[in-house]
Amino acid sequence: MTASSAVTTGTLVVPDARLYYEVRGAGPLLVLVGAPMNAASFAAAAEQLATTNTVLTTDPRGHFGSPLDNPNQDSTVLARAGDLAQLITHLGAGPAVVFGSSGGAVTALALAQTNPDLVTTVVAHEPPLRELLPDAEAQRPLTEDIVATYATGEVIGAWRKFFAQAAIAIPEPMLEQIFGGDRDPRQVASERFWFAHELRPTTSWVPDPPLLRSIPTRVIVGIGAESTGQFCDRTSRELASALGVDPVLFPGDHIGFVNDAVTFAARLQEVLDEP
Predict the structure, then answer these.
(1) Is 244 in contact with 213 (CB distance < 8 Å)?
(2) Cα 73 to Cα 135: distance, rounded to the nearest angstrom
(3) Overall pTM > 0.90
(4) Which tens digits make up the pLDDT trace of 134-160?
């Protein structure tokens, strides 16, 4: 884009939370959603896509600008899907195309299953659907160990174990630089909520491939071109196989939309424009 789009911000009150959201651009409704990644993480990509779309981004429940009435309740996949349904309905601009990444991809799949009338296309980018893996039984205790490690206060240790399970190589000095020392309190609060109340419900959710094949919503499975062999590369390929579709490659790795928003957004628009 040559200039920034005007950003409209709002808060939608739902029975157990307040949901912060941002809207940019004009055109068909396109939702960019993560979990735990918030609206700010998608801002650069949203700017690019707002030239041809009305782009909705949001802080998922329990993170940053979307506080829960009970901060100790879990962020379930169905609750997050319900949030998206209410946001789309609130804007009155649907049905929407929904791009979800990581936990947001799981949210988007659940939205398609529960409210297919609200979503024409889901792009599920690297959903961490652990239960689809052939070695899911071995993976479950690894997730539990990560959650338990963080609960003891071993922040760097928990992240070390997380990236090991994710098969993402992070040098030890980088771990200490990112997750040690003084940190943004809001980021720490988001991280704490994710480990305690979101990681387990997200990775344990099981999609319904026969249902996803039967509904009119188009489901596209996206994988980062640089994610080969990683946990979410494996889960995404298992999902694509269960749906009988070929996965679509996107630039970068698990967070390609952050590292190169311009290229990633162009690729997403290209994929959406394909028949």
Answers:
(1) yes
(2) 29
(3) yes
(4) 999 999 999 999 999 999 999 999 999
